[in-house]
Amino acid sequence: MITKYKHIVFSIIMLVNLPAISQEKKAKQTNLDYTQYVNPYIGSAGHGHVFVGANVPFGAVQLGPVNVFEGWDWCSGYNYASNTILGFTHTHLSGTGIGDLNDILLLPVSGKVPLTKGTKEDMTTGYGSYFSHKNEVSKAGYYSVLLDKYKIKAELTASERVGFHKYTFNATTDNHVLLDLADGIGWDKPVKTFIKKLNE
């Protein structure tokens, strides 16, 4: 008889504790980092027109690299088939199939600062750099790449309204950050840009 009651008591204890066990399991599951499953490169080749870079959902900034424009497949500013970077711009359209934005280009450089863009065939006389996908990292909210020409590591991240750049320069002197306000994507160019110095 006691054995019979032991089973009933055990069953009641289990039924009472099941919701607590379930809640504990749910709490552990909510701590998962779902960004580990994001692959920002999906759609960045061929006709995908997806930009690769750092942004947050519905953010005002889409910070990412810009390749030498080679046609319609580069209308997001980036195509995985490319090995060139002209700089990092603060606005991109992603997946639209139409070129627009790619405004406010920054590029960290060492040495002489050329004022014309490099080309796919020649990055030595203009600004920009070749890069290797081996030295490129893109994950949700973060992008980094090593610029081969300058031996500079560029890291990008973004908040809702701001893009953050971090540059690790290899050279100790003659380092610069180039700003190109006239850059656009393909056929799209800014109409009027300027810099205004407010104070010393």
From TrEMBL:
Residues 37-197 form the Glycosyl hydrolase family 92 N-terminal domain. GO terms for cellular component: cytosol. Residues 1-22 form the signal peptide. GO terms for molecular function: carbohydrate binding; peptide-N4-(N-acetyl-beta-glucosaminyl)asparagine amidase activity. InterPro entries: GH-type_carb-bd, GH92_N, PNGase. It comes from the Bacteria. One of its GO terms (biological process) is glycoprotein catabolic process. Its cofactor is Ca(2+). Keywords: Calcium, Hydrolase, Signal. Monomer. This is Sugar hydrolase. It comes from Flavobacterium araucananum.
